[in-house]
Design a protein that fits this description.
It is a single chain. The chain starts with a helix and ends with a strand. Strands 2-1-6-5-4-3-7 form a 7-stranded mixed β-sheet, with helices on both faces. By secondary structure, it is of the alpha+beta class. A hairpin with a 2-residue loop joins strand 5 and strand 6 (268-275). It has 2 domains: 3-165, Butyryl-CoA Dehydrogenase, subunit A, domain 3 (Up-down Bundle), CATH 1.20.140; 169-288, Nuclear Transport Factor 2, Chain: A (Roll). It has 14 helices and 7 strands.
């Protein structure tokens, strides 16, 4: 076996792990594959005899490449690419490694998938590398160009935001359905006052790129503004269970086109996400309910 083939064989042994790392940082299978391929190109051009820990070296390269891609995405003001569910990357592993277990453990739901896309590139990278792949802060710090202490703060801040998005259990599922149903009724009836009382003062309404293309605003903040967006609207929306959790769906021809994912804290709606990405919708279990 020549040197190139030997190196390629060693790289392939790490490919699933590298793809898992890149996917959770970037949120896009295609971008993750690009990052992994770039890592291979850099390895093939390097003097690998000087690399003591190939897995660690490759993980660092993939993380740096992914961070650059995230920063470029933010600079161009592109919508985040993280609209794909974790099963895509989980399916590409054999289930034996810690990266597979971490991805499955991280499958909190739609709200968290949306929330992780709102993190800054440095927050996202620190959170994913430490919390999901147990990389020490001392190793992450040079990648994000921070001290280990500052890197720990990045991960902590990201963790609080992501955990805050996983609030489904804060509200009984039956009560949650009642709140969403009442919100739909108030929207259809144009009851602005009722809508405002159901919304947290700092509520945020977000739309993904697909929904923005059909005329929605990318983001609206505040109870009055969000209530005004819904008052007298949503007449075509239907109450639905989205992956077992109450939400709304707009469907045409028997196919969901937009799902309305609600994040609740107690009795208040803190976020509404309008999701229309076809790949995402194809992976959600959407069941229309009467009402």
């Amino acid at each position: 076996m020549d040197t190139h083939d030997w190196l390629a064989e060693r790289f392939e042994a790490h490919r699933a792990h590298l793809r898992a790392v890149a996917y959770r940082i970037l949120g896009s299978p295609a971008d993750a594959e690009d990052a992994v391929q770039e890592a291979w190109l850099r390895l093939s051009r390097s003097d690998s005899s000087q690399v003591e820990n190939l897995g660690g070296w490759l993980t660092t390269v993939v993380a740096r490449v992914s961070l650059n891609m995230l920063q470029s995405r933010k600079t161009r003001r592109e919508d985040p690419a993280g609209s794909h569910l974790p099963e895509e990357i989980a399916a590409s592993t054999d289930g034996a490694g810690p990266e597979h277990q971490a991805v499955l453990a991280f499958s909190f739901g739609v709200a968290v998938l949306v929330e992780i896309d709102t993190l800054t590139p440095a927050e996202r990278l620190a959170f994913v590398l430490h919390d999901m792949f147990a990389m020490p802060f001392e190793e992450i710090a040079p990648i994000v160009e921070r001290t280990p202490a500052a890197t720990r703060q990045l991960a902590s801040r990201a963790r609080r935001r992501v955990q805050g998005a996983d609030t489904t259990q804060d509200t009984d599922l039956t009560r949650r359905r009642e709140i969403v149903q009442a919100f739909l009724a108030a929207s259809r009836n144009g009851d602005l006052g009722a809508l405002v009382t159901m919304l947290d003062p700092d509520v945020v309404l977000r739309a993904d790129q697909t929904v923005v293309r059909i005329g929605a605003e990318a983001e609206t903040r505040g109870a009055q503004a969000v209530a005004a967006r819904f008052s007298g609207q949503a007449r075509a929306a239907k109450l639905a269970l989205i992956d077992g959790v109450a939400g709304l769906v707009w469907a045409t021809g028997g196919r969901p086109r937009v799902v309305f994912s609600f994040t609740l804290s107690g009795e208040k709606i803190t976020a509404i996400d309008l999701l229309g990405d076809p790949d995402l919708l194809g992976r959600l279990d959407v069941v229309t309910l009467p009402g």
